[in-house]
């Protein structure tokens, strides 16, 4: 196996493993991302989003500060989606590179078989 193909397969395996492990951590084991503070506010926004989807979830602190949970939640969701899209794009690029490399070898081998078959077919017609 050519080194270039081995290297690409290692990249594909690493990308796929990273995506799978990240998904397992967050979805299956329920680990939280350290994306912002306070984490409790994000949990609240997630729950409220389900039960009150049209609410903006603005929390006022009384000192003039306000926390817009809806906007914060949207930003976090966009960050998570961006991370997964970036990882998926990297994986897709590596798979395409593997296919381009393998396709050249496949075409070479197929043309040899095709040419051999033509010779045999011509010989049988004689």
Polypeptide structure, described:
With 126 residues, the protein is mainly alpha-helical. Helices cover 76% and strands 5% of the residues. It has helices at residues 3-28, 39-51, 69-125; strands at residues 58-60, 66-68. It has a two-stranded antiparallel ribbon with strand order 1-2. The two termini are 40 Å apart. The mean pLDDT is 77.
Key traits:
126 residues, mainly alpha, two-stranded antiparallel ribbon, 3 helices, 2 strands, rod-shaped
Summarize the structure.
76% of the residues lie in helices and 5% in strands.
Number of domains: 1
Amino-to-carboxy terminus distance:
40 Å
Strand content: under 5%
By DSSP (H or I, 4+ residues per run), the number of helices equals: 3
- Summarize model confidence as the mean pLDDT: 77
Task: Report the uncertain regions.
Answer: none
Q: How are the strands of the biggest sheet laid out side by side?
A: 1-2
Name the helicity range: over 70%
Structural Rg:
27 Å
Structural class: mainly alpha
Output the helix-strand order. HHEEH
Write down the overall geometry. Answer: rod-shaped
Q: Could you tell me the number of beta strands?
A: 2
